[in-house]
Each structure stands twice: as C-alpha cells, then as structure tokens.
Amino acid sequence: MALTTAPGRTGPTRSARPHASRRGAGRDRHGEGLAGYVFLSPWLIGLMGVTAIPMLLSLYLSFTNYDILTPLSEVQWVGLANYERMFTADPSYWHAVRVTLTFALVAVPLKLAAALGVALLLNRAWRGVGLFRGLFYLPSLLGGSVALAIVWVNMFNRDGAFNSFLAIFGIEGLPWVNDPEWALETLMLLAIWQFGAPMVIFLAGLKQVPSELYEAASVDGAGRVSQFWHVTLPMLSPVIFFNLVLETINGFQGFTAAFVLSNGTGGPVDSTLMYTLKLYISGFTDLEMGYASAMAWVFLIVIALITTVFFSTGRFWVHYSDGER
Predict the structure, then answer these.
(1) What residue ranges do the domains of the chain occupy?
(2) No. of H helices and E strands in the chain?
(3) Distance CA 89, CA 253 (A)
(4) pLDDT (tens digit, 9 = 90+) per residue, 43-87?
(5) Strand ranges in the chain using DSSP code E only, listed in sequence order
(6) Architecture, CATH, for domain 82-324
C-alpha cells in the first residue's frame, strides 16, 4: 500500500485511494446488477403475469366450483370433489385419455421414423438437396394453424382431393373425417406429415457423426444396414432422445386439428376427443372452469412424470461422447 507524508507531519500516512477504488468497484458491480434486472424485467413481468400467477390461481380454482360467470370472491371451496369426479364419475374423461394415448403412441413414433428416414436421404451432397430440405420443412412452419387444419379436413372429406385421387384407380373413398373409425387416423396423418422440425434436428445430428467411424465399419465388412444400427443410431441417440421428449409432449398437447375437424365437439362419436379438447369443452363450453383446472393440473403432473421416466431411462440407451457430457 502506498505511503505518503502529509504536510506538517513527520510520519507516513496511508493513502485513501485504494479505499475509494474499492468503493467505486462496488458501485460499478451494483450498477451492473441493477442494469441486468432492468433488462430482465420484461421477462420477469411476463413470467409472473402470464405463467406463475395464472398457474397458482388455477391450482386454487381446481378445488372450487368456479364457473367463469361467478366472481372469484363468491366461489365455493369443494376440496377434492373435482378430482374425485374426474377419476370415478366422468367416463368421457377416461375416453379422452384413451384417445390421447392412442394418438401419441402411434403418431409420435411414426413421425420420428419419417423424420429420420428423410434426414438420411437428404444427408447427401447432391444437386438440389437444399430445395428438398426446405420443401420437407415447409409443413412444420405452418405448425398447428387453423388454416392448415381446415385444408386438411377439406382434403379428406367425401368430395375431397384424397378421394379424387383414389377414384383414379377405381377405389371408392370414404368420408374419412366423418367416419369414427378413421377420423383419429386422419389427425395422426396430419401430425406425421409435419415431420420437418425433427428432420432438421436429425440432419444436424447426422452432420456430427465422424466419417471415420463409417470408414472403419466398412473396413470391418459392415454393410449399410449394419452401419446404421451400430454407428448411426448410437451416435444419434442424444438427438433421438431430444426429439422423442419434445414430440411426445407435443403429441399429448394436440388440440387445433381435433377442434377444427369436430367443430369443437370431439366428434364424430367422440373419436377425436383429445385430452386438451376435453379440457376446453369443460372450461369454456360447459363453464366448469374449476373442473377444467383440475384436469389441467393432472395433465401437467402426467407430462412431468413421463418426462422424468424418459430422463431416468435415457442413461441405458443414450450414448454421449466425452465432449457432449
């Protein structure tokens, strides 16, 4: 520490500059922290106003008989009555669970298989591959839009384009979207067709597989099928895991297409009554928002449990390289 001799004194005195420097650094850090919170404030306000507070309110409402029209100050506490009704006295609830499970268990694996297959085909340096990648990705840009669902329903009507195509080969079509045996399959086909997003992720993963592994496998006499099972899939397992988790959650959340196809009823004959559509009907058609809130919280817990199962079992089949851990 620097020593100075003050006028009129015979001994050295400590300089005040280091203390002032430390105080200045503290003020700088405080100012930087305050600035950080200022920049984060829009997100924090959105988190509290759009997510956290509504979630806590819905948790409270799940134990009440709230019906939207009644002021919150006048709702009655019913305890676990909504949950008891859900599990024991509402057969349409369990039907919605079965429809949603069927949709997710069929559509999600087929969608991922289609995405991986097309990604393998497009993982080549041939002319025009960029155009094909964009065309295959295009349906995913439309997402769960109402316009796309309307077009899809019109395509599979009795007089739709799909039946016109079948008529070329002398095959009589069906009213696919109005047939209880085929309506859900029509929604599955729409979900599978929108495989562009996982396809792009698979493509990115395929680009990271070292070519030396394929060369070594080829030297050992492995064919293309053997290379796919013993090189591509293990190296791609983290990407498969990522896509599986995201697409499973998306599969359980299907709503727009089912709403458009059935005009918000889950028809025909409740064949497209997805869980989220059942929740919507309970809350906004039957005006049983307390019951709908209880359904929403059960749905949240189930999705959390499924995700937990994926992460707990992933260590048995997901293989990370040292740089990915």
Answers:
(1) 17-74, 82-324
(2) 15, 2
(3) 24
(4) 888 888 888 898 999 999 999 999 888 888 888 999 999 999 999
(5) 3-5, 12-14
(6) Orthogonal Bundle (1.10)
